[in-house]
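Students often ask why inverse folding is considered easier than folding. One informal answer: many sequences map to the same fold, so there is more than one right answer. In these notes we will look at a single instance of the problem. The structure comes first.
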């Protein structure tokens, strides 16, 4: 691929070819609220630059965003890569998007030094800093700048970043404004091929999101020469091509933008299609992205450049930033507990939902330690097609666990996954949605068990069966009969073996949604007046109910189970709910005290009515126990069958047959 001046600087010494690893960027004009991710204007930046003491109070910097030069009393952002710092003010780039994650480059690539280039006009100081894995920062060098365009170049070694640490720089204006013209982090790209990318978005009835991201990409396509095609796999009935403005974007992209209509095969079906198209196009990488995201275009370039430099083919993913709280890192990387076979936050001391409005990168010690992950979710994940050719496409499991299973499969084959700081998308966080009691309950259980059969290193899956049995019991005690019936259906399908995985892709979602209509606990009404008023002939004693601990969990569960299975509900409970509980209060140890309860939805959009049914609970409990026992007994045989079938069910041929059945792929 031919390099552009945006990606490569061939003026290095002794024949060195410098490639841009990371460019300093500022937020777009309409994303001013995200500034703490890009720049830090706190008074204490840690800079060792000494300012002349005039006796006046140092002014707080106010950041203004302008489309061109503008007079301000703080920092003026002039464009995506330039800004003006007010006289006698300081700005730091010890930030998520603009600091350089040195440890990740040190650990995963052959680079042993990077070059920082900063171009300025005006008088002031560029001070370079580094941190270690403990989050302790030290000054590295200071560079006085003055007058017309000036370029600072600092060669920075990566030797000391084995376990963690970042580089960054600060700007301090002297007694006149200091203008930043641009800054880049570069590395020796001699012998490093520039890979090509198929960027793929899977969408289901979110055309406006897709069009917004396509528009951002087309506006930045000059800086993204490695993106050779953008493929939108449209699985909904609200089509992207019908969205106002699509024709203009299509015209500007030309044949680099493709929209593929496909039946609803879930996230796995959409992402597998992206993998398939990338392999067919002979792209070096496929970059998988969700539809309900907002992208930072610079992150698209960074993720592929990092992959180019990796020592071996590597899956490179981005973090999730909360779309509704746009300075909050909702997910910083995930790992698997092999014994429970459950995923969770990776790394020592990693915080969920870290908000840069309250704590900057410089003061967030845990973020300076390199975090190792087992996989990266597919809201943004780049996969080398070399890996796809060896280990196959996504597992055909509709939704949930497709990305987790793929990361585990890749790791078993010797391929590392890196969740790279400075690479992220804004995504709707899942904190306000409880998908364990929605239609996704079936897929949570079925897909986890399939993944455990494929990859668990422990006899009969370690704790996975016991934990799933406990979850079934909690659903029953909470009167969540739909969720439990869906989980029982999942057990039956797991026991049926791997042969029907492709066949079930479009079918099971319809079956599960049909099942929802048969349970009051799965039907939501937006208006509380759609239900009878709350009333109870015999009030339930509920004062100071708290979660049971220790031995009390066993006694509380046993007594609740006896009541739930054997005691007849109050007659009036079927006519009126006995209580209205907010979602956060509707825990099993509270719900077991009632015969019926009106419960708010997790996202606050409606209400549903739980009703206790001993007959239904007995039937579901008996079936759950029977199927779990059968799965435990047959685990070795089923594990062998799933593992033997994996290469075929994830193959190009198997997926191609599924695509043919549900769309026209023109092969």
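Output (designed amino acids):
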């Amino acid at each position: 691929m031919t390099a552009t001046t945006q990606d490569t600087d061939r003026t290095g010494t002794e024949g060195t070819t410098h490639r841009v690893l990371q460019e300093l960027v500022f937020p777009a004009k309409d994303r001013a609220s995200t500034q703490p991710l890009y720049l830090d204007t706190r008074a204490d930046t840690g800079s060792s630059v000494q300012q002349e003491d005039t006796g006046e109070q140092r002014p707080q910097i106010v950041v203004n965003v302008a489309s061109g030069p503008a007079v301000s009393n703080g920092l003026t952002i002039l464009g995506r890569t330039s800004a003006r710092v007010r006289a006698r003010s300081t700005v730091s780039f010890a930030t998520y998007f603009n600091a350089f994650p040195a440890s990740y480059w040190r650990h995963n690539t052959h680079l042993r030094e990077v070059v920082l280039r900063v171009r300025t006009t005006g008088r002031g100081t560029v001070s370079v800093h580094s941190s270690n894995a403990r989050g302790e920062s030290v000054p590295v060098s200071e560079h006085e700048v003055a007058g017309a365009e000036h370029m600072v170049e600092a060669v920075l070694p990566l030797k000391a970043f084995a376990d963690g640490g970042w580089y960054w720089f600060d700007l301090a204006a002297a007694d006149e404004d200091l203008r930043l013209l641009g800054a880049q982090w570069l590395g020796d790209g001699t012998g490093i091929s520039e890979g090509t990318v198929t960027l793929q978005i899977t969408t289901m009835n979110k055309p406006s999101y897709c069009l917004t991201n396509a528009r951002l990409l087309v506006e930045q396509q000059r800086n993204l020469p490695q993106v050779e095609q953008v493929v939108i796999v449209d699985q909904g009935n609200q089509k992207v091509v019908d969205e106002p403005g699509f024709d203009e974007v299509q015209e500007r992209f030309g044949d680099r933008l493709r929209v593929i209509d496909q039946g609803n095969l879930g996230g796995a079906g959409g992402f597998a299609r992206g993998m398939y198209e990338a392999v067919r196009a002979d792209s070096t990488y496929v970059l998988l992205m969700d539809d309900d995201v907002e992208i930072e275009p610079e992150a698209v370039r960074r993720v592929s450049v990092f992959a180019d430099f990796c020592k071996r083919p590597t899956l490179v993913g981005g973090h999730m930033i909360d779309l509704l709280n746009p300075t909050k890192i909702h997910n910083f990387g995930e790992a698997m507990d092999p014994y429970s076979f459950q995923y969770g936050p990776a790394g020592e001391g990693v915080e969920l939902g870290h908000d840069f409005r309250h704590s900057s990168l410089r003061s967030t010690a845990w973020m300076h330690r390199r975090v190792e992950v087992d996989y990266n979710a597919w809201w943004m994940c780049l996969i080398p097609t070399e890996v796809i050719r060896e280990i196959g496409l996504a597992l055909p499991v509709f939704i949930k666990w497709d990305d987790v299973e793929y990361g585990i499969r890749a790791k078993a084959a010797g391929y590392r996954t890196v969740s790279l700081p400075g690479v992220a998308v804004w995504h709707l966080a899942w904190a306000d949605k409880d998908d364990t009691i929605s239609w996704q309950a079936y897929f949570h259980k079925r897909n986890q068990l399939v993944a455990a059969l494929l990859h668990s290193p422990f006899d009969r899956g370690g704790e996975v069966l016991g934990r799933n049995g406990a979850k079934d019991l909690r659903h029953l005690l909470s009167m969540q009969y739909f969720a439990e019936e869906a989980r029982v259906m999942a057990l039956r399908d797991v026991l049926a073996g791997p042969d029907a995985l492709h066949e079930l892709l479009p079918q099971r979602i319809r079956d599960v949604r049909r099942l929802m209509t048969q349970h009051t606990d799965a039907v939501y009404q937006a208006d509380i007046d759609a239900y009878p008023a709350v009333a109870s002939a015999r009030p339930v004693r509920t004062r100071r109910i708290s979660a049971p601990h220790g031995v009390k969990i066993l006694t509380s569960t046993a007594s609740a189970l006896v009541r739930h299975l054997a005691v007849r509900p109050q007659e009036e409970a079927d006519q009126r709910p006995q209580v209205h509980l907010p979602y956060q209060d509707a825990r099993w140890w509270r719900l077991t005290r009632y015969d019926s309860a009106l419960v708010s939805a997790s996202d606050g959009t409606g209400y549903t009515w739980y009703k206790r049914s001993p007959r239904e609970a007995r039937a579901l409990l008996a079936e759950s126990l029977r199927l779990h026992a059968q799965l435990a007994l047959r685990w070795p045989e089923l594990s062998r069958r799933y593992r033997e079938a994996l290469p075929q069910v994830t193959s190009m041929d198997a997926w191609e047959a599924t695509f043919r059945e549900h769309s026209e792929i023109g092969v």
